[in-house]
Amino acid sequence: MAAVTAAQPRSSKTESYVDNKRKEDIRQANIKAARAVADAVRTSLGPKGMDKMISTANGEVIITNDGATISNKMEVLQPAAKMLVDLSKSQDSAAGDGTTTVVVIASALLKQCLTLLSNGIHPTVISDSLHKASIKAVDVLTAMAVPLELSDRESLIKSASTSLNSKVVSQYSTLLAPLAVDSVLSVVDPAKPDMVDLRDIKIVKKLGGTVDDTQLVKGLVFDKKVSHAAGGPTRMENAKIAVIQFQISPPKTDIEQSIVVSDYTQMDRILKEERNYILGMIKKIKATGCNVLLIQKSILRDAVTDLSLHYLAKAKIMVVKDVEREDIEFITKTLNCLPIANIEHFRVEKLGHADLVEEVSLGDGKIVKVTGIKDMGRTTTVLVRGSNQLVLDEAERSLHDALCVVRCLVSKRFLIAGGGAPEIELSRQLGAWSKVLHGMEGYCVRSFAEALEVIPYTLAENAGLNPIAIVTELRNRHAQGEINAGINVRKGQITNILEENVVQPLLVSTSAITLATECVRMILKIDDIVNVR
């Protein structure tokens, strides 16, 4: 009997040992997979970061150093690695910028977690300590931040420039940064001053020219030409614009069927009826004084036929066809008009008014510009130009990041230094705080503080500087009380980064730290992967 009881604890010990081993293996595999994703993105951090060339399965090539785009295009199969891709997406939707930073911070935290786990600290203890440290980090960052007024256009431009400086189109930041600031400020609604909907800023890409030719248009731009198959007008002053969602073409039968007409007189009757039907519609349109038609793309039948275009041209009505369905809301908001779904509802009060609608030649194509809109809604259009498709796409992505940075400053009006300064300051203050804490908690917070040094280290490394010397010097400066000392990658030395105009919104930094911590805590808590077939 005694022998049996002695054997029992040993067997349970063995079982728990095997179990833990599997859990440790899964944790390590998850952390390694997640860090592999981060290592792919890491070299693109900062103004001197490298660019990635992404080749998709259908032969499309993308050149970018936007963390969210790189992560998005990766075909990641491991579930924990997918979490890092989603982390980058979350940062993109929350702040718009700092998508590379958030992945790099998460990777550094995971590396520290591996060390803590191998020292025998329980994952739950690490997780709770990281949560505490991230809350403290947000408080420290908020204390460092400089308040900002929206009237201070110069500071807004500086932060937009900082975002653009790490992009492929960084040489055009002097043009794109003011453009981003002006476009966001023009769509801010005084009734809701903290909210900016970026859908109110439409980016239209047109191949040809250089990024220098990018312009802000107070009005509408259509990347299509006017339908002048029948010699209709291509320029219209004092335009009365209708956005229609019905077809100006003869009706079809409701179901797929063919009608056989054997008699010529009946054939003439059909054609005559078609003409009368179209003429009746155009007379109703003309009666309201409408002289510009924007016709929504139709999938059921042709939105316009050659015959209807001929009659519209005779009536001196300008036609822009194939307007995309998703653009209708933006167009009606801009023109301050209503979309018309049926010819019977065609009223004068549903029309929009503009001083000029004209077709403009641009590069090798043409665009339609609507300017001088009366009672224009709070929207704006940016016409982006580029010498090739790669530059054009990257210019659009960079401009989107700059717009997001200005949006962050509108919703949370605080600026913070860039260049690795906030991370080193956080590392220093959290390191000091960890000495006050007791037990394992202090140990975990110290690891969190060390992990944050990865940002200045990577910035220096990507700029070709000596990272160890730079980070040591940076720590020294911060210990002496220079909280805004950061890495100036252009000069290759440490300077007061606020004076160098390298600033970013507080929201970008706080969001990066909270999101990265949240993701790492989630990966830590996973101890098994169950595949369901």
TrEMBL record:
Places the protein is found: Cytoplasm
Record's GO cellular component terms: cytoplasm
Record-linked SUPFAM superfamilies: GroEL apical domain-like, GroEL equatorial domain-like, GroEL-intermediate domain like
Superkingdom classification of source: Eukaryota
Keyword Cell inner membrane: no
Key words of the record: ATP-binding, Chaperone, Cytoplasm, Nucleotide-binding
Database matches in CDD domains: TCP1_delta
Keyword Transmembrane attached: no
Ranges annotated as biased composition (Basic and acidic residues): 12-21
Regions crossing the membrane: none
GO MF term set: ATP binding; ATP hydrolysis activity; ATP-dependent protein folding chaperone; unfolded protein binding
Region (Disordered): 1-21
Similarity-based family: Belongs to the TCP-1 chaperonin family.
Task of the protein: Molecular chaperone; assists the folding of proteins upon ATP hydrolysis. Known to play a role, in vitro, in the folding of actin and tubulin.
Name recorded for this polypeptide: T-complex protein 1 subunit delta
Source organism (scientific name): Gossypium darwinii (Darwin's cotton)
